């Protein structure tokens, strides 16, 4: 069982593990000596990741939002591992769109991947973990905690994931711990796809710590939550955002000359993609 055995014997599944934060989580668990399965719908990225990994990684080509595809991936994993100890529900998409311009298809697709996909993965994992125990870690976002313009579907999907976390923690206790993490701005392909280098630098300048987070820093928090050191933590939402949500508008107004100076500009994205 994950709580007692530590990393070495852990079997860890990471969804969306072929890129960005998920890939960093996979690398981190690999370094810790865990057995790692990476599930992703991007065939090329999955192949690249599995090839680059120093230790053997179990690649699972699947879409978290497609129940049949996901079931097949879990069946394959069962055949190799016979169970699992840790699931990182990390696959996600971000669509930046003004609310009034958001199509029903965009709304449904975002919720389907970010929330329904997490539900499907957690249900498959929970059924396997309920007797032997385990840990589920959901990658939510600070966008699920505060309102952010132009990301209504994304924000709602992440807010839903936070509530799913609390409810699952109650239903699956005491054998399974369930927590969510809320990253702020983290430099990944998701962010690079939406913003220019200049805009990313501008985002960094608005944060109290003056920089974007790294995928490795997020992976470190996930590794902690999966470890026996976090054995008394469940149903919680841990924020890792460089201080982004520590204050409100008043905190920005008080620092007109500091690194946290907020200058409204037309290019200011106000919210990082996927953040
Ligand atoms: P990314 O785009 O670099 O990686 C996401 C991965 O998920 C990709 O490999 C993609 O192929 C995979 N994926 C997407 N939809 C999938 C599906 N339906 N089935 C299987 N795999 C799928 O993004 P990232 O920045 O590493 O984001 C990872 C998670 O962190 C997401 O849930 C995102 O919302 C969240 N997050 C990111 C940030 C940030 O600033 N980058 C901040 C907060 C939260």
TrEMBL record:
InterPro entries: KR_dom (IPR057326), NAD(P)-bd_dom_sf (IPR036291), Sc_DH/Rdtase_CS (IPR020904), SDR_fam (IPR002347)
Alphabetized SUPFAM superfamilies for the sequence: NAD(P)-binding Rossmann-fold domains (SSF51735)
Residue ranges of domain Ketoreductase in the record: 10-179
Comp. bias regions, Basic and acidic residues: 254-275
Transmembrane segments: none
Molecular function via GO: oxidoreductase activity, acting on the CH-OH group of donors, NAD or NADP as acceptor
Keyword Transport included in the entry's annotation: no
Entry keywords, A to Z: Oxidoreductase
Keyword Oxidoreductase: yes
UniProt-listed SMART domains: PKS_KR (SM00822)
Region (Disordered): 247-275
Superkingdom of source: Bacteria
Family classification: Belongs to the short-chain dehydrogenases/reductases (SDR) family.
Protein name: 2-S-hydroxypropyl-CoM dehydrogenase
